[in-house]
Design goal:
Elements lengths: L1 H10 L1 H8 L1 H14 L49
Helix pairs in contact: 1-3, 2-3
């Protein structure tokens, strides 16, 4: 997969420069030329981790939400500010 992607980047370098700009295209092409030769010796690995469930009486960080500090500008009654 990566080899094909890197080849496409190299084959379509002029289009990348036109669409993304010189700097971004140069970064992508440098990555392709640096990484592509290392691919034949690599093996793809998928790792899936399983976290045991937390005991029901234990709060986790996702169970709580902090409230804005008193006097702060955050909160539902504060109008949104849009900078232009």
């Amino acid at each position: 997969m990566w080899d094909r992607l890197y080849r496409l980047w190299i084959d379509h370098a002029d289009e990348l420069r036109h669409e993304l700009g010189q700097a971004q295209a140069a970064n992508m092409l440098a990555e392709a030329e640096r990484r592509r030769p290392t691919l034949p010796g690599r093996r793809a690995v998928l790792l899936t981790l399983h976290r045991p469930p937390a005991p029901p009486d234990t709060e986790t960080p996702t169970d709580t939400m902090t409230t804005p500090a008193p006097g702060s500008e955050a909160g539902p009654d504060t109008p949104e500010r849009v900078t232009q």
